CAP-Gly domain-containing protein
Amino acid sequence: MGDQYQVITAPLVNVRITSNLNSFMSEKRYDRGLTIGDLKGRLELVTGASAGSMILEVFDDNDKLVCTLNGDDSALLGSFNVEENYRIHVTDNSKKMGEFEDVSKVEKYELSEEEYSKRNESVRAFMVKNKLGKYNEEEQQKLEEQKRALEREEEEKASKITVGSRCEVKVLGEPTRRGEIMYVGKVHFKPGIWVGVKYDEPHGKNDGSIGGKRYFDAPMKYGGFTRPACCEVGDFPELSYEDDEM
């Protein structure tokens, strides 16, 4: 008869772990059959506190102190009032706050280029063995040829774009813009040939200058740079309000 009124406690309990040594909180699941000594050993890995000097306090959902897990390290966790989602706060006054979060004092391990090249299990060794990426000479040669072909195509297109011409600029994902060609040539901020445009409307990004270097004059937000492939020269009149309405 008495067994039907017995309270059965779950063998595992989820608890939140905080510490005076760091600013983060973690969630852990522990067996209620753990001794307090074993629990302290596990909390060393979580908080960096020393088992021999840590103080354990249990707080409920309202952050009210319930009990302390100190004294007999052979006592079982299940013998204390530690309920689901309670918080165990670890205090270790022998160490400083943030001591284990400051990585500036950690000596970094550096491997020389020569030593790394000797390793057979490295990513580089795998790529060399399987001729992947930059270690595939044939593929790299094809990419280089494609790059040169695109450069020639860009130069040819740029040679037909003259300063003072009207143009229409079409960039994927952006509205079509019209304006006047103000500059054609290389720039200091990116490789390749670029076209400087003074737009009819303030749909640009600058005034014809970037990083303190001026390429042409335009009102602020009326100037911009685009690739020759995005720029079409022709008799493009300035868009009027009526055109936009249509």
Summary: The longest helix spans residues 137-159. The chain has a mean pLDDT of 86.
